[in-house]
Design goal:
The chain is α/β, with parallel strands linked by helices and 229 residues long. It has 2 domains: 28 residues, no CATH class; 165 residues, Beta-carbonic Anhydrase, Chain A (3-Layer(aba) Sandwich), CATH 3.40.1050.10. The longest helix has 26 residues. The protein is globular, with a radius of gyration of 19 Å. The structure holds zinc ion. The site of zinc ion (ZN) has 7 residues, from helix 4.
Length: 229
């Protein structure tokens, strides 16, 4: 302890976790080891540092199976057997853990969406390729605040559509074994807007009657003003 470097904040935080947080949840951690994990929720979220899934839905250790990537994107299901980390996580969650719900959570002020408009650095070849996954949601106009918000919401709907192309996801949804939740989290007001596939609209959680998308239907831009076509 005496040799602790004064500026090693991470080490201090690790010690705080062990001394303060872990004892509060020790039994839960031990149970999850003894009986394996049984999360009911697969959470697909953007890697953004301001999106904190455990805070957002008040989850404890063992409750969320997380996959996070730049933009909260879902790659097309192509069965190519490539090194697709996100696809593998979706398969693990849905087929091995048999989660009962999948949340796709995008958010406001998303740098991934902004970068999709502005362009990533030349050297970031994987990122440039990855951002193509949101191309279909981009709007042919200057990316001001309103356009960015609309794009963020269109992006999570696009990922939902892709997710429904995963055969095992569609099968489970249609069998009523799996529910889908498409969310847009507004970082600076704390509100989450829930996509309702029946109406093709996002409804704030404070007004929404449910947290899920409802019976799946193809998305139709509801106000017509910002259609890409
Ligand atoms: Zn983001």
């Amino acid at each position: 302890m005496d040799t602790l470097p004064k500026k090693d904040e991470l080490l201090l935080r690790l010690r705080d976790f062990h001394s303060d947080y872990f004892p509060l949840h020790q039994q839960r951690f031990e149970d999850s080891v003894a009986h394996r994990q049984h999360p009911k929720t697969l959470f697909i979220g953007c890697s953004d540092s301001r999106l904190v899934p455990y805070l957002l839905i008040g989850s404890a250790p063992g409750e969320l199976f997380l996959v996070r990537n730049v933009g909260a994107f879902v790659p097309p299901y192509d069965g190519s057997h490539g090194l697709h980390g996100t696809i593998a996580a979706i398969e693990f969650g849905a087929l091995s853990l048999k989660v009962e719900r999948i949340i796709i959570c995008g958010h406001s002020h998303c740098d991934a969406i902004m970068t999709a408009y502005d362009g990533a650095p030349e050297e970031a070849v994987a990122l440039r390729s990855w951002l193509k996954l949101v191309d279909e949601a981009l709007l042919p106009m200057q990316p001001g605040a309103e356009v960015l918000r609309r794009t963020e919401q269109r992006a999570v709907v696009l990922q939902l559509e892709r997710l429904m192309d995963y055969p095992f996801v569609r099968r489970s949804v249609e069998a009523g074994l799996l529910s889908l939740h498409d969310w847009h989290h507004v970082i600076d007001d704390g509100e989450v807007h829930v996509f309702d596939s029946k109406d093709g609209t996002f409804v704030s959680a404070s007004l929404a009657s449910h947290s899920g998308t409802g019976p799946y239907q193809p998305y139709v831009e509801h106000d017509g003003r910002l259609n890409v076509e």
